[in-house]
Amino acid sequence: MRNLFFTSRFFILLGAIIALFAISFHVSFLYNISQVLLLLLIVTTSSDIYILFSQKNKFSCTRTTPKIFSLGDENKVTLHLKSQYNIPLSVQVIDEIPMQFQIRDFSLSCSLKHGEKKQLSYSLEPKSRGLYLFSHTNIYLSSPLKLIQKREIFDNSISIPVYPSIIQMKKYQLNLFASVKHFSGLKKIQRVGHSYEFDHIKKYSIGEDPRSINWKATSRANELMINHYSDEKSQQVYCILNKSRLMNMPFNGLSLLDYSINTTLTLSNIVLQKFDKIGMMSFSDKMGTIIKAGRNGNQLEKILNALYNESENNLDPNYELLYSAIRYFIPNRSLLFLFTNFESIESLNRNQSLLRKINKIHLLVLIIFENSELDAFIQDSRIERDIDIYNKVIARKLKIEKEQICSELKKHGIQYIFTRPEDLTISTINKFLELKSRGFI
């Protein structure tokens, strides 16, 4: 009886019969009609119960999911249904999805004939890393009469870890946007001059850069010879994540740290494809994960597992500790992408001397996040209350301070990326390609 449920159709018909019984107190001939209808409803409902419950183990349901979910991306989940009932069925599916999504009205519906198979798919977009538990799948079956529903429960329990966006990493594979087809927003930058790694000497051809002519080799060979350069490889690149309270700000459901983590994974894959070395560091009030730069086979896996375990805290960042760690763990000049955020010019000034020291020994690229929600508020021309005027003034003041922060960084020769959180990956890739093509690293 726990798997038997009466449908709304049954209660509507029962309510109509009860109404006829009530009316029959005043219209006597309706009493016999009401009795007949009630008997008919009982017989029909009993037949419906017999049809559905007399057939056991005639329905199957399985769930297929990716082995891991990608943070902030649409992840597809598929339910495979098969019916062996000898009648057509109306099927309602309630899948017990992880509680992190807080979806309380999830339901899918379809119809199945005898021996028919069907797939139902839906997508989930996780907004936080961690372990997500899928529980049972509840199937509610109805015959063509649709007076009752029979529930069948399938134990499809499985735990899925949510990692930084692997889908995004694959999307921005370097060999894809290095070809003719480009993703929207990515730009191919023309190389200026040549890199610094000498490859070999060859004969001069018309159109080649005459500045690369090797005059000593020319005199020995009695013909023009030119130096050929290849892409400089094995440069060190580090992604440094600020895990302090500044990175807790949410945009479209993801925190700034989550955006930075997704970008770090994607950039790490691209750096390795460029035959450079990639490493990462994290810090807040104390140092977190430190992975030295390398390009061995499991380097990307090490970074992926480290990013999975990173989490924000509510303390202020310690840039003095970061500077000491960089001096100790990164002795050679490297390209450093520092994923952090400054909301006021005062906070930048407090740490500017340390950032300039880091920039002297390494090539520092500071990521500054644009507050896209603040910009949308400024552009909204509606003013309903007097306080809205003051709010817009404060919002414009904060926007101007962001521009002043960028001006200060530019004045002191510190590279920076000023971008919206959703454009962080594209902006960071473009910056890396630009610095690489201009021979800065």
Plain-language structure description:
With 441 residues, the protein is α/β, with parallel strands linked by helices. It folds into three domains: 163 residues, Immunoglobulin-like, CATH 2.60.40.10; 231 residues, Rossmann fold (3-Layer(aba) Sandwich); 29 residues, no CATH class. Helix content is 37%, strand content 27%. It is built from twelve helices and 21 strands. The strands form six sheets. The protein has a six-stranded mixed beta sheet with strand order 18-17-14-19-20-21, sandwiched between helices. A five-stranded antiparallel beta sheet has the order 1-10-9-5-6. Helix 9 links the parallel strand 19 and strand 20. The longest helix has 26 residues. The termini are far apart.
Concise overview:
With about 450 residues, the protein is α/β, with parallel strands linked by helices.
Name some characteristics of this structure.
Immunoglobulin-like, 27% strand, 441 residues, alpha/beta, Rossmann fold, five-stranded antiparallel beta sheet, 3 domains
Low-confidence stretches: 175-184, 189-195
CATH C-level label of the largest domain: Alpha Beta
Please report which band the strand proportion falls in: under 5%, 5-15%, 15-25%, 25-35%, 35-45% or over 45%.
Answer: 25-35%
CATH-level-4 superfamily name of the largest domain: von Willebrand factor, type A domain
Query: Structural class of the helices, strands and pairings?
Result: alpha/beta
Biggest sheet statistics: 6 strands, mixed
Global shape: elongated
**Average pLDDT, to the nearest integer?**
86
The counted number of beta strands is 21
The CA-CA distance between the termini, in Å, is: 72 Å
Specify the helix fraction band: 25-40%
Fold-level CATH name of the largest domain: Rossmann fold
